[in-house]
Amino acid sequence: MSLPAAARLIRPDAACMASFVEAMREGYSRDNLRAETPQTIAQIAAEPEAFVRQLLNPPTTIVLPDGSLGERVPETHFWAVEGDAFLGSISVRHRLNAVLEQWGGHIGYAVRPSARRRGLATGMLAETLGWCRENLPLERVMLTVAEDNPASQRVIEKNGGLHADTIPHPWVEGARGRRYWIDLR
Ligand SMILES: CC(C)(COP(=O)(O)OP(=O)(O)OC[C@H]1O[C@@H](n2cnc3c(N)ncnc32)[C@H](O)[C@@H]1OP(=O)(O)O)[C@@H](O)C(=O)NCCC(=O)NCCS
After folding, report:
1. Are 12 and 55 in contact (CB under 8 A)?
2. Which atom of ligand 1 is least distant from the CA of 143?
3. CA–CA separation, 158 vs 123, rounded Å?
4. What tens digit of pLDDT does each residue of 27-80 get?
5. Does the beta carbon of 46 lie inside 6 Å of ligand 1?
6. What's residue 1's pLDDT?
7. CA distances for 121 relative to 9, 74, 152, 172, 178, angstroms
8. Alpha-carbon distance 89 to 59, whole Å?
9. 25-42 burial, b for 16+ CB within 10 Å, e for fewer?
């Protein structure tokens, strides 16, 4: 599985920031539990280069979905682009901590609404698993997905994901989520 022709995976690049902001206005969100707001979009649009710098050198703390401050493990971000057009994002956390072991896992991704159903998420995950094999000392990676997200479950299963268990979603009241593992070796 590879990315559709013309799309490629790059490290975040300021040249794609106008398109990244457009994608947020279209409904792309950096975090599938929290939609972007006019405020978050305006903040990023005002300082696009600082935003890219932060993705390339992430801070060591993170605001968790319940508003508390947690440890951010080392993370590498990639963008799928066509020319300077931003299509989607995928990121790899280099190790799990107690929060990510429960929910979050090693890899998260999202595709902007206008670029969905073209095989982008499947191709982004396939390429990122290759990067993990070459760059991280991991035997396997964990991914988590809400029970009501069949598209993402399909993306993971097409990339060899094995459904390990289904648990109550720790951040969404009343929802359930699946934890998957993908072998790297
Ligand atoms: C989930 C998401 C990443 C899928 O991205 P995508 O680029 O459209 O996925 P692909 O084109 O690679 O499709 C993968 C598979 O899912 C299927 N699929 C895509 N959208 C679907 C939908 N809405 N309902 C059911 N199946 C769907 C595709 O048909 C394909 O399966 P197939 O090859 O058997 O036909 C995208 O919908 C998204 O960004 N959603 C919001 C963020 C999110 O949920 N992130 C993942 C969190 S775990």
Report:
1. yes
2. 48
3. 10
4. 999 998 899 999 999 999 999 999 999 999 998 998 888 889 988 999 999 999
5. no
6. 82
7. 11, 22, 8, 23, 18
8. 18
9. eeebbbeeeeebeeeebe
Residue 126 structure tokens: 């396939």
* Domains of the chain in sequence order: 8-183 (3.40.630.30)
Give me the half-sphere count of Cα atoms (radius 13 Å) on the Cβ side of residue 12: 21
Torsion of CA 141, 167, 145, 182, to 10 degrees: 20
Q: Residues 64, 102: contact at Cβ < 8 Å?
A: no
Predicted local confidence at residue 19, as pLDDT: 98
Atom of ligand 1 nearest to the CA of 122: 12
Q: How far is the CA of 136 from the centre of ligand 1 (A)?
A: 26
Ligand 1 mean position, distance from CA 9 (Å): 18
